[in-house]
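INFO  loader      accepted 1 record
INFO  loader      residues=125
INFO  predictor   begin
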Amino acid sequence: MGRPCPKCGSEDFRPAPDKERGCYCNWCGAFWWQPKPENEKAKRPSKHRELAKKYGQGFCELCMRPEQSLPGPQVLEGHHVVEYEDGGTDERTNVWVICTPCHIHVHHLRTYLGHYQSRSEEDAA
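INFO  predictor   done
INFO  writer      dumping tokens
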């Protein structure tokens, strides 16, 4: 499936049942995401800025900061609630217009909460 366990280095792991690219180490129980294969990364060019221009109202829909107050390279970006690769569309109902820091934060939470949910479900079983 890819790289060894980042915690113990073991190459003995199993795929997470509800995560396409996630896996658990059979030795230490650590969970980690495997990187997307190169052919998946190239499936569709990023439309984040284009979607922000199409649907945006000049502010981040999460932190409410106006676009003019964003420092440096930070901009408004379109975030797909359901990822394009998972069947999400570019329709307004599936796109949040958020600033770069909020976009990074949302993806971090998606990864963390997905990991936490998987572990909780496994512990309950």
